[in-house]
Write a structure and sequence with these properties.
single chain; alpha/beta; five-stranded parallel beta sheet; 43% helix; binds calcium ion
Length: 221
């Protein structure tokens, strides 16, 4: 596993590289945006840890560029900026997860492990979440073993939430996904689909939480 650490703080960058190497990964340090872009052009990284505040670039622009070219590489964003809008902007730009500085190295390592595990799951594997199983390949959804006959858009919303279980998915990302595969959707469409899914899944112990102004999160129990 090859991790690219994009971080201009030299102490933090080299500390992260050392911690990742101790955890058994290969790690490369990019101290600025230009270095990061060059490394990402030629490299075969399995994960990127990306600081947003770089001397020569905005980390969000690097992230957007990456998403335009290589959709699937997991990106963990580091941000010193607090406030919900920065986290939302990072998630909307395609970050898979984020950590606010200062953070505990153990938490960073746990998030790296989780992201790598998820990215290696592949697309033909079933997603399991409590009593729910969802097969992205056959589009079959079962709850307590019972087949649920979901309309296409509800399936797409549930798939996004289930693939990001216990993590926030922003409303804008869900809307983007829906507009990518359908003609056009109304302003309230995401809310309508989430509402319908809640009704279907409520009896099976799955909860879709609303984080006001941020998005949704599916959790078991
Ligand atoms: Ca920085």
């Amino acid at each position: 596993m090859n991790v690219l650490v994009v971080e201009d703080d030299k102490l933090l960058g080299s500390g992260l590289v050392r911690a990742l190497e101790q955890a058994g990964y290969a790690a490369e340090h990019a101290p600025d945006g230009a270095w990061a872009r060059a490394a990402l052009e030629g490299g075969d990284h399995d994960l990127v840890i990306l600081d947003l505040g770089l001397p020569d670039a905005d980390g969000l622009d690097i992230l957007r560029g990456l998403r335009r070219r290589r959709l699937s590489i997991p990106v963990l964003v580091l941000t010193a900026r607090d406030g919900v809008e920065h986290r939302v902007a990072a998630l909307d730009a395609g970050a898979d997860d984020y950590l606010e500085k200062p953070f505990d190295l153990r938490e960073l390592e746990a998030r790296v492990r989780a992201l790598l595990r998820r990215s290696q799951m592949g697309f033909d594997e079933e997603i399991r979440l409590g009593t729910l199983t969802l097969n992205p390949f056959t589009r079959e959804v079962r709850c307590d073993g019972t087949l649920l006959d979901l309309p296409v858009r509800e399936f797409e919303v549930l798939e996004m939430l289930a693939m990001n279980a216990n993590k926030v998915v922003t409303k804008a990302r869900i809307a983007q996904r829906l507009t990518a595969s359908n003609d056009d959707i109304g302003d309230n469409a995401v809310e309508v689909y989430v509402h319908r899914l809640r009704r279907r899944l409520g009896d099976h112990g799955l909860r879709i939480r609303t984080l006001r102004g941020v998005g949704y999160l599916v959790e078991t129990g």
